[in-house]
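Task: sequence design from structure.
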């Protein structure tokens, strides 16, 4: 299967706190891009000393061709789900890169150029389960990134989930996609769709 859009090298960092599902988010997105879209993907991860509440990050490098260096250092997209993660990793975002943040938890963004949604509140209030927050993020990114096919990404998500949480996570994914389209629609057009 051939990727729909040629990608030279695209680097994503998911960052936040342990317990927010950062690593799972990276794995599902990476798998969706590799198996569902035909890209080459590398994934690296690290988390702080205490799993819950410590810092956590997961990087993806995505390319149509071979990936010579697996680590992300010059980010095209930074997803920051905590203030600390935002402060720590923002310097790695390259000029023109996009910052996506958890707008309730990142109270002081380092720039006024960002896209934000209150992911935690959305998961709690609209989906009814806090643990689905990372799936709301995945849904919003499947709208944001022009090389992501929403259907293929949803299929990837459903293929890795146990049956008992499939429906609730599909709901969370769809919610993220719908809200990103509604809230970011015009801005996203500016950011990535001009090339």
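Answer:
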């Amino acid at each position: 299967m051939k990727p729909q859009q040629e990608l030279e090298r695209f680097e994503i960092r998911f960052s936040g706190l342990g317990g927010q599902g950062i690593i799972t988010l990276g794995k599902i997105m990476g798998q969706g891009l590799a198996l569902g879209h035909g890209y080459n993907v590398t994934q690296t991860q690290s988390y702080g000393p205490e799993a819950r509440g410590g810092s956590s990050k997961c990087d993806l490098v995505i390319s149509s061709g071979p990936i010579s260096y697996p680590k992300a250092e010059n980010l095209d997209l930074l997803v920051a789900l905590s203030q600390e993660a935002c402060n720590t990793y923002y310097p790695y975002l390259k000029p023109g890169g996009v910052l996506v943040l958890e707008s309730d938890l990142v109270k002081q963004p380092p720039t006024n150029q960002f896209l934000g949604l209150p992911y935690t509140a959305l998961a709690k209030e609209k989906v009814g389960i806090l643990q689905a927050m990372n799936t709301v993020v995945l849904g919003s990114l499947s709208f944001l990134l022009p090389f992501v096919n929403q259907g293929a990404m949803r299929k990837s998500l459903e293929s890795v989930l146990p049956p008992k949480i499939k429906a609730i996570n599909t709901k969370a994914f769809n919610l993220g996609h719908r809200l990103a389209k509604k809230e970011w629609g015009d801005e996203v057009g500016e950011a990535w769709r001009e090339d």
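The chain has one domain: 10-189.
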